[in-house]
Batch of 2 targets.
Target 1
Amino acid sequence: MRSGQLTAGTGRLAKFALRKDRIRLPVWLASITLSTWGIVLIFAEMYAEEAERQAVAATMLNPAVVAMIGPGYGLDNYTLGALTAQQLLLFTAIAVAIMSILLTAGHTCGEEEEGQLEMIRSLPVGRLANPISAAAVLTAASAVLTAVIGIGLRLFGIESMDLEGSLLYGAALGVTGLFFTAITILFAQLSDSVRGTVGLSFAFLIVTYLMRAAGDIGNEVLSYLSPLGLILRAEVYVSDYWWPIGLTAAAAALLFAAALLLNSRRDLGSGLLPQRAGRMHAGVLLRGPFGLAVRIQRTALIAWSAGLFVLGASYGSVLGDLEAYFANNAALLDMLPPGSGFTLAEQFVSLLMVVMAMISTIPVLITFLKLKGEEKKGRTSHVLTRSVPRGRLLLGYLLLSLLVSLGVQLLTVTGLWAVGNAVLEGAFSFTILFKASVIYLPAMWVMLGLAVLLLGWLPRRTGLAYFYLAYSFFVVYLGGMLQLPDWLAGLSPFDYVPRLPVEEYEAGSMTLLTFAALALTVTGMYGYRRRDIAD
Amino acid sequence: MAVLQTRQLVKKFGNLTALGGVDIEVKEGEVYGFIGPNGAGKSTTIRILLGMLKATSGEAEIFGKDVWKEAVELHKRVAYVPGDVNLWPNLTGGEVIDLFMNLRSRSSDGRREELIDRFNLDPAKKCGTYSKGNRQKVALIAAFASDADLYILDEPTSGLDPLMERVFQEYVREARAEGKSVLLSSHILSEVEKLCDRVGIIRKGEIIESGTLQELRHLTRTNFTVETKEVIPSLDSLPGVHDATLQGRTVSFQADASELDPILRYISGYGITRLESAPPTLEDLFMQHYEETGGDKR
């Protein structure tokens, strides 16, 4: 086969891919860019004084912090640029990696799985056109990200954020995008499904994060082997090394070449990893709608549980540094209510609880709205045409979501308690933390109730539930910092929850939230039972 | 006795009228063929019968019960196979078959293994790796393994190979022999011709013809090929003669059933040396109905 044959039609396919991503891709890029810019502006406000920045620099000596966000550098003269790069770059890079994995998997094996690629390949299009066009789209996205973030950061006119450093910052993100695009295309050749590819890619992302964590506090070789560790070695805004960027880009190119080689060797629709033989019969769990709901979301639920436990634990790990951190920062101390009689750790925990509750609401919504995804894919009718009442189907998903809400709240608080107690030596009793956590359940149920309502009455707009959660996060978490009017936060259920242990328990608002959740759920169920099932 | 009956069934999606008054009746122990091209309203009718869609107006009953209000109770006696079977990619075929059987509260008659064997399905494979035909088999096995009184089959053989189509036909005949009823929606007319006792033709959301194949044939034309000693003049101008083509002394044409007698008298005057006649196939019937009642009348 001539080489031109292999790549024929790549350009048109890339254009087509861009068209399909005309909403998804800009939303991803805008979210990453805007949150970077927004946080930099917040940092500029919060850490305007050198003493405040040096307090942060002190935390960079704590191994737990280094394990979480990467190594400290330039700590003697901790400029705003150095602070931003150390606090923000790693997590932004992870967001870019997630974007690359999801978009690439959709373009490569997603289309293969749904049979669209088969139609495209039957046209005069080369075997390698699909992976190359996917890579081209993501490369363009990475380039845009590099330029927009890089130039944008410079335009803020912050002294310590010069043009070279800002471009390096953008390039570190861009090259992370390239690397994870290449690795996802490679995994797409090994696995025969989107789930498999995304699973492998995310597992790889987690491994690179953990390798970097271990490397940053121990044997540094591990950090150099991890792309996430490597880009931090650019020491953006301090030393401005470009070689880690070049090295990561070269690794991405090699991985991509390997993926193309594998692609040209395998059959369409098959993966190179062998298929295991599955069960011949359904297990005891797979008896009804509830068992089915559990079974098809099992892996996702395990992953979320593990992730949220780690999130709680990582917040717990910084509790020990709080006292030193706040003691050095007069500005932050002034923000705390005077004579409240609570320790800094307790105040910090009350803020953590609302953040963790909102993050934990994501898997609760995902678990319930799977029912909507099932309808869209034409699978609910399998259940409903077999003497299962609609109410029972919906209740199965609702029950699972409620269990998930309990489970995630318990897991995050257990992680926080276990690690927090180790560093603070028994400052918190589990009961206090547990209460502070479960008190958010009624607010989470209101979000769930909204999802039920949307499913029952506006099934095409179920995404609004996530939008409302994002809104809540924005106004409740950042509202105080951005000095937004109070009524904006008042539109979110999370605003009505007392911030234990700092605030007093209040039965009235809890009852109100629970009733609101119940009313939304019942109304939603009524709608679901009488509407058309559109699959 | 009617097992399934709809009266003036109307379904509107916003401004679009998908069904404009559909009447069908399936009697006990018969196979009813529900035919029509894509988009004519077959699946919409079936989804109303299954309680997935709510009819805008009209009545639909199965075993004398309302299909919307008593859906759950009815589904204990109804087995359904959709034309496009989407399954959970991470469950195996065997697991899905068991799940489907578990979801019916009635016990099944334990033919699972026999059916898996007859349809030649590997139940240990994940559904994500199945071809369309194999996914179809999963739904068919679950349906025939269940002890249903009415089978609602919506283009059930799309994606099956001819060998498996034959297995399918055997199971449909077996079900009928046991006194069960079948609503078979299809656009594979040879299949309908083989299996169905009665057919209904749907077009743009309305039933335009229904009855036994015999009855329908009677309403329509018979194909003739005639060879005569002398050339037959002006056959075309005779009432009831259609599409006459002359090749030498051989003429092929279609004749309306009502005009058969005068046509045959006329041509016998020219000395018939060979005469072949064939009843119209279902395809002829179908095409004829669509051509005559279609928007673009010729």
Target 2
Amino acid sequence: MGGDSKYLGLAYVAPYIAGLLIFTAVPFVASFYLSFTDYSLMRPPQWSGLENYTELFTRDRTFRKSLSVTLLYVFMTVPLKLIFALFIAYILNYRLKFINFFRTAYYVPSILGGSIAVAVLWRYIFADAGLVNMAITAFGGEPVNWFGDPGNALFTITLLRLWQFGSAMVIFLAALQSIDKTLYEAAAIDGAGKWHTFVYITLPLITPVIFFNLIMQMVQAFQEFNGPYVITEGGPLKSTYLLPLYIYEEAFKKFHMGYASAIAWVMFAIIMVLTLIAFWSSRHWVYYAGDKRS
Amino acid sequence: MAEEITVRTTAELDSARTLAEGRRMHAISSAVRYALLAGVGFLMLYPLIWLIGASFKTNSEIFANPGFIPSEPTLNGYIDGWRTSTPYTFATFFWNTFLIILPKTIGTAISCAAVAYGFARFEFPGKRILFATLIATLLLPNVVTRIPQYLLFRDLGWLDSFLPLWVPSAFAGDAFFVFMLIQFLRAIPRDMEEAARVDGANTLQTLIYIVVPMLAPALISVCLFQFIWTMNDFLGPLIYLSSVDKYPISLALKLSIDTTEAFQWNRILAMSVLALVPALTVFFLAQKYFIEGISTGGVKG
């Protein structure tokens, strides 16, 4: 739109710029600063250098436990969820009748999954005498101590996330449906079997979407709060005490704002490193076929 | 000559045979797929179905009957749960949830539409950097900014009010929505807008009368997602709201777990059902907007 001032566009994005500065950029820098201070709301922040970080990495056993639980949770949840979402999307993408019905049914848990009501439901169905154990005993199995046993509790929380594979699945399904059918026909003429077609045609073509889902799911998984907070309250024996719970308690229960910021920054650094690894490695495995924009 | 004919017939027979076999394989494969899909679907949805049934059961039946249908249906869970052990009923908590959602959703829709319009239709200094920050915010974990945000809202005197929940969204704070709208706008040709400009409309008029109507499906997706995410949001209200009379449903549910006497399970289950009803209703009435929204936002990313 030629006659307009080149600053007109800025007027439209002005709310975003203001919001970015006030609610993201300044807090981002401030929290980095706070992580080097001793700040408990009673008195102004006192510069304490690397004290918070030294405490975290040398003396704080809760942090060590929380960090290892978080990493275990992320490395368990993200791959399982992506594989399951892709598997179901692959089955759905097959000229089936009722495809929309199934897609909707699988998507429902993603809509409700983050809610407290579903966390409550999880508490009840995985209780000692809950629905899941009733089903297991009905089939002659031994009831499982889902939440009481530190070895199981994190897995039970993971199941809650897996249950919400629908959003990732919808994205996979859309990508599968956009693959050019002639490629499959060509592969069939060349005598490729289903497995080969999947590995050499389908997978490479949807790598951009796998990459997108991988990053988004990872960032989300690191921030899981509602599930463990409501279902297990971090227990038993801190086996579900994910970092966001630790940050929340340090910051908003004990008001150790400086220390909590340091934990947040360690977590942020880990997410950044993993994201950068993903971006760096994507050059070798993500394939942009239809990239005509560049 | 005769030999040739035989050869051809055998080949035809062969191909007919593989065709029939292919069809049979296809039928078997379809059956396996349907069985798998139905089985997984049932496993996934049964907890929700059980929840609805269990909310009408007596407390002694909840942990004894894995079935859906209550043996002695009762509304006690709903009646007692609604009253809560606080001076307020769930009516207050539903109203509070509504009071949080409505301004937040309106603010989101208006600010995101304007910002997406700015990004998709104009060139301006610093655009590339700003767009890069949009993607960066999409990936930035909220954990990092939460503490200074809290301190900011405390200094503004906004604690224990809905303002910290409303205001960031009114500044296009949810990068995901802005991104989704930009993707959508890029796919719409500019002819109509250019025609409007030729007829003398300014850019704001073009935005309101031409772009917004074309953007409507995507804007509806944005509003629906914001509705459900706000409905589900727990950490925000947990940090910012301290008086019970301002609690939304998510906090009220957690409160009723903590305060309801033991063995009064059906109250909590009944209120959980009610808490899920708004989101479920909205989803089933408008599911195509959810699916389309997530596909545009995601795939082209």
